[in-house]
């Protein structure tokens, strides 16, 4: 089976489709086959994204990106601070 990467939005959409089909009386194996995923993948996604909606996932992704940007900014400022301290102490 070809390995594909799904975005978090696609995962949430597929989980909602699976929930609809499961409510209709289908078995997990049938649902996973119609979604082209394995049952193990379904259970892993359910544990990770269960109950989330697309907007929540998008907001989480935006927060992670902002957090990474802020961490880089703090690291740059810390390096500048150390360099200025060494310059003042005459260690250059």
Please tell me about this protein's structure.
The chain is mostly helical. The protein folds into two domains: 52 residues; 39 residues. 77% of the residues lie in helices and 0% in strands. Helix 1 packs across helix 2. The termini are far apart.
Global structural class:
mainly alpha
Ends: how far apart? 59 Å
Number of helices: 4
The residue fraction in helices comes out at over 70%
Question: Low-confidence parts lasting 5 or more residues at pLDDT below 50?
Answer: none
The structural domain count equals 2
- Order of secondary-structure elements: HHHH
- Largest sheet, strands/sense/barrel: none
Beta strands, count:
0
Mean pLDDT: 91
Brief overview, please?
This protein is an all-alpha fold and 92 residues long. The chain has helices at residues 8-23, 28-35, 39-49, 54-89.
List keywords for this structure.
rod-shaped, 77% helix, mainly alpha, 4 helices, 92 residues, 2 domains
Break the fold down into its secondary structure elements and pairings.
Blueprint: H1 8-23, H2 28-35, H3 39-49, H4 54-89
């Amino acid at each position: 089976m070809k390995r594909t990467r799904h975005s978090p939005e696609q995962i949430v959409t597929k989980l909602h489709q699976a929930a609809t089909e499961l409510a209709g009386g289908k078995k997990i194996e049938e649902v996973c086959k119609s979604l082209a995923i394995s049952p193990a993948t379904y259970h892993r996604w359910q544990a990770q994204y269960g109950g989330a909606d697309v907007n929540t996932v998008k907001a989480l992704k935006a927060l992670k990106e902002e957090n990474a940007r802020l961490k880089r900014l703090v690291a740059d400022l810390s390096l500048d601070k150390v360099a200025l301290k060494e310059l003042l102490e005459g260690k250059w």
